[in-house]
Amino acid sequence: MASESPDRARAVAFTLNGEAVRAHVPARMHLGDLLRQSFGLTGVHLGCEHGVCGACTILVDGRAVRACLMLGVQADGAAVETVEGLTESGRIRDLQDAFHARNALQCGYCTPGMLVTAAELLDDADAAASRAAIRAAIAGNYCRCTGYHAIVDAIAATAEARRQGRQNAGREAAE
Amino acid sequence: MSADPGGLTFLDRPNSYIGRSVPRPNARRLLEGRGVYVDDVAVARLGHVAFLRSPHAHARIVALETADAAAMPGVIAVVTGAELAEVCAPWVGVLGHFKGLRSAPQHALAIDRVTWVGEPFCAVVARGRAEAEDALAAIMVEFDPLPAVVDMEAALDPATPAIHAELGDNLAFERVLDVGDVDAAFRDAAVVVEETFQFGRHTGVCLEPRAILADWAAADGMLTVHHSFQAPHMMQDILCKHLALPEGAVRVICKDVGGSFGIKVHIYPDEMATCALALMLKRPVKFVADRLESFQSDIHARDHRVTARMAFSAEGDILALDMDDLTGIGPYSVYPRTSAVEANQVVNLTGGPYRHRHYRARARVVLQNKAPTCQYRAVGHPIATMVAEGLVDLGAARLGLDPLAVRERNVIPDDAYPCAGVSGIKLEKLSHQAALAKLKAMMDYDALRAEQARLRARGIHRGIGLAAFIEITNPSAAFYGVGGARISSQDGCTIRLDPQGGVVAAVSVTEQGQGTEGIIAQIVATATGVPMDKVRVISGDTQATPYGGGTWASRGAGIGGEAAWQAGKALRGNVLAVAGAILQADPGSLDVRDGAVVDAATGTERMPLAELGRIVYFRPDTLPPGVQPEFVATRHYVPKDYPFAFTNGVQASYVEVDTETGFVRLLKHWCVEDCGTVLNPLLVDEQIRGGIVQGIGGALFEHCLYDSEGQLLNGSMADYLVPMAGEMPDIAVAHVVSATASSEIGAKGAGEAGTAGAPAAVVNAINDALAPLNARVARQPVTPEVVLEALGLI
Amino acid sequence: MKAPDFAYARPASLEAALALLAEHGDDAVPLAGGQSLVTALNMRLSAPGLLVDLNAIPELTGVSEADGVVRIGAMTRHRDVGTTAIVRDRLPLLAAALPHIAHPAIRNRGTIGGSVALADPATEWPACCLAAGATIVVRGPAAERRVPADAFFRGLYTTALEPGEIVTAIEFPVPGADAVWGFEELSRRHGDYALVGLAATGRRAAGGLSDLRLAFFGVADRPVLARTAAAALEAGDLAGAQAALAGELDPPDDPTTKAATRLHLARVILGRVAAGMRGGGAQEGDPDGV
User: Which residues form the FAD-binding PCMH-type domain (chain C) (predicted)?
Assistant: First the structure.
């Protein structure tokens, strides 16, 4: 819903974790603050508010974006997904299980953003083909606790399991 | 190690979780975005505080007008330093056991004078953070800039003004140690090597910034503080003291903490101010540092220049070490742990792995008008390790000896313990030789040397760097308590068995992601015989746990874990006493296993815990006479026989240096660590990996850069470079186990070992790569420019 | 770090956007991908009165090819610029530059038009525009202008955009069959701003290279075409080309990196890109190793 005239706050309507929502948002409020404060989605973490640390990474219209670098008013008409929604839908269940088993998180602050980034990577079946490719994909998500090795392991394990799953499904379909 | 009546030790109880790589139960909520960090805590009537911070390194505040700001939309209050001082008393960061340590009183909000860029001096509380920041811009302030001390080399020049006139000069602390006959050793040495090492000041950059929410409920007389912090009891004590409140009036809660690394164990003026504001305004007030103010105001660390020499015999024995350490802190020694500890540890630890008997060290700690510095993960160890390990490599090269062989020759032998290191540190049992042997095999050292030689012939410059190190863990009161600090070195655990057979364990050590709650659950489950999924751990609440020290100096597992073990054994004893009375069996013939009372010899189940609970809690009328069950047990523990539990390890780094661009590629990293009993390999190894990468940050990337006016030039995530996944190597970890006899669980600490040794390993590897080109680096961070300068290309 | 107060508009057409920008003058700024602008707002480095959001304007999107020209709409996201089939086929230089641009989440929102209009001298698209001889299509209240890349980047964050004008598209000539290209960037970490970078195009000629366009970035207040170096390289003189850079590039001194270091690195990557272009027609620095 595009509007010609300027205002300092406006009503927006969008889909949030699969649910239709509305909010009245000050123009200056970034999407991360909107999700945290107006919708209680505190799984969206703020680490820098200048787009570098990656902690606030969420999905907008299916793509990973920094919630701190979008204005809340820009969510109008979009489909927004946070780690909470991805958890409820089960879409990242295998990733979360792999992270848990491998202890690919410690303080947990980078984890939601890391999971969203990994989820987008794994959407492309061929993308996580090597440890170097995984490292490059998460190179914009700062983690101070793990040193990244365990995170790469967990993403690689999930990618491999999905590959196996696709192969098995392909075999079954062929039979 | 003591044994059960059944002859079983800590390690081999039935259904033991000890040594198992159990995933952390409390990690699940973090994976689902359901962590509760301070900024997530919802309270009514919350005020948000933003601070006006000094734009000058040193200045007098001439005028401060806040009326316009107070009238801005959403503003609740604007408070100056003078107003806040009526509620919050100042502090001085000195302790008695650092003889001669001097500092000046520091207020929560600076009053007449600001002494570093970023120092807070005025506070705006508003209904939202954005409105508070709007109001900051409306505060009128006039400064009279003063000369700033920004060069630690010049800080002690007579011509340089003293930051605090009453101190006379800028020397905060000096320590001198002189053991043996250093001059004679150097005189008689076959080889003497010398180097001046420079270390870049850097900082912790916890992903969750510092955050605190203070809520003064006047009717209850209760100040509740949600704090992203490591030591809730220490904070409670300090708030009581400086806000003039009785101990029972302050409750500090530390739930989920987004990284701490020592950054969050110190007293910050803005956090104290937030608590004082809650009292003044009688409503909850929250402060969350944004990233820019975090860089300016979190404690910094590791700003050192060390000149050192090492003397060798012709055969390669290290005979003596002589060093001079100069370190520049901020304008105040940080409270309450002091900013003298880092230098003190450099003196205590340099050369620690080795058996030389002649050692001289001088450390001088000087005040500067830069961000204050204090303990940050592996305090002093990265510097101590770099100095010694850098000199060992220089000596090895001069003597034409293999660097690994020189270390093998010189480490204190594994059968020499207990003994004291040359600096006087008491060592219970280390394993340098075993660790070196394990490392050599693990990395296939000889094969790597061969590969290095092959590639050198093709103009590819790879280097192998080693670093042997020791690390301080599990400190006793010797660390702080003896100096008068009200910092607890003891910890406790209370465990309660509930009617359905589950246990709740409240412990005074805290969690910041390292897995404290997980290993406590493992220990409690093992000790009590209750399955782990029926164990709940409570930590980080001064009202709900025993009194203790929290988590720092790698003490959580060793100290908190031992308390949990003892409490668990005690509870099991109480349970078996009651069960024995009910079953008319000798309690010594019974055990608790997998949630049931069993016959110890056969394992046959006699009574589920749930049945015992039903009787004890709901049918005490059916108990035999004289039986009063106590299904709650508390035990405390403090290390008594050694001031610190020293651990040891050795790391190796394999790098490739692009000698045209100066870029360093980290190919692989190894660490063999001896931290005593490994309670959970999964957690310990990840602590080590994380610590290694944090150390690599300081070695290659991280540097708080100041200009000649004391302005921090690179205080954002874009300009201050932290290690990211694209540049970090895979890291192989292995262990040697020398359990400590100071406790039954035998666990020493492991949290800081990675950071202690990584910079030396990496820098030594770079120098090993550059050696054929007669180039050498001695300055961290080693940027491409540093390498290019060493190569003479710039 | 909360942004100051401002007004916001989200016009549905280019005309409406231009009208708003004309009406509010200096007090209004266009909002493209927001990856730089929202950062500046959060840090209070910028305090405009009005943001004009360009994200709902259909005329600014789309990638198409006609008459030997690939036209990329200004609001095309970095990620889509680099992965669209037309670009992968026709403009491999841009596809090669993509993995160097920041990180996936930034690439999903940031736009090529925003990047070109901002003209940060350490970024990839302006240099690619210069190397490829692109034309920047600009619209103001009055008319549309086409500005060659050579004339577009004027200085530090300074372009040929007049007040009230925005970039609407960038047009890239489709290289011929004999085209060669090269791209190399050195940065401390994946996705960081370049210490130095080079986007290069040319043609294979008898015995070497011709029509070389060497666009360096990270080495001055704007992307720089090193013409003297190009001429020397065309003549087969790499050493001469590298030496010429000292006169053509004016790298900044900054707290972490001296000008001399950037100059040295520029010489090194010139050698590497030249070798790649001579060797096989296409060459790209490995984004996985810095």
Answer: 1-177
| Mean pLDDT of the residues in chain A | 96
With contacts defined as CB-CB under 8 Å, which chain A residues touch C35?
Answer: 51, 66, 69
Residue A4 lies in a domain: no
Per-residue tokens: C137: 């299509």
Q: Are residues A98 and A163 in the same domain?
A: yes
* CA distance to A103, B60, B147, B575, B638, per residue, from B753 (Å): 19, 43, 40, 39, 22
Residue C206 lies in a domain: yes
Domain of residue A34 covers: 9-87
CA B671, B673, B678, B684 torsion-angle sign: negative
Question: Residue B700 and residue B723: Cα distance in Å, rounded?
Answer: 9
Residues B768 and B464: beta-carbon distance below 8 Å: yes
Q: Which amino acid is at B279?
A: L
Q: Does the residue A2 lie in any domain?
A: no
> CA-based angle B415:B419:B425, to the nearest 5?
135
Among residues A46, A70, A87, the one where a domain terminates is: A87
pLDDT band at C287 (very low <50, low <70, confident <90, very high): very low
* Reported pTM: 0.97
Chain C residue nearest residue A67, CA to CA: C105
- Mean pLDDT value across residues B19-23: 96
- Across the interface, which of B130, B707, B714 has its CB nearest the CB of C2? B130
Residue C250's φ and ψ, nearest 5 degrees, are: -130, 75
Task: Report how many domains make up chain A.
Answer: 2
Share of chain B above pLDDT 70, in %: 99
> Of the candidates A4, A63, A69, which has its C-beta nearest C35's C-beta?
A69
Domain boundaries, position C17: 7-52
Q: Of chain A residues 17-76, which have a CB less than 8 A from chain B?
A: 28-29, 36, 40-50, 52-53, 55
Q: Does any CB of chain C come closer than 8 Å to the CB of residue A8? A: yes
**Which of C13, C60, C108 to probe by mutation at the A interface, max A CB count within 10 Å?**
C108
Whether A71 and A124 share a structural domain: no
pLDDT for B464 beyond 70: yes
Residues C188 and C241 in one domain: yes
The per-residue pLDDT for range B25-84, each reduced to its tens digit, is 999 999 999 999 999 999 999 999 999 999 999 999 999 999 999 999 999 999 999 999
How many angstroms separate the CA atoms of B382 and B146, rounded? 34
CB contact (8 A) between residue C2 and residue A28: yes
The count of other CB atoms within 10 Å of the CB of residue B573 is 12
| Chain A hits for C10, Cβ within 8 Å | 2-3, 73-74, 76
CATH code assigned at C214: 3.30.390.50
Residues A56, A36 share a domain: yes
Mark yes or no for CB contact B705/C193 under 8 Å: no
Q: Which chains touch A (3 or more CB pairs under 8 A)?
A: B, C
Contact C104 A54 (CB under 8 A): no
- The verdict on residue A3 lying in a domain is no
Same domain? C18 vs C108: no
B249 pLDDT band, cuts 50/70/90, is very high
Q: B-chain residues within 8 Å CB-CB of C288?
A: 726
Question: What's the number of domains chain C is made of?
Answer: 3
Q: Looking at the domain assignment, is residue C286 inside a domain?
A: no
Classify residue A132: in a domain, yes or no. yes
User: What whole-number distance in Å separates Cα of residue C36 and Cα of residue B792?
Assistant: 37
Give per-residue pLDDT as tens, B486-500: 999 999 999 999 999
In a domain, C287, yes or no: no
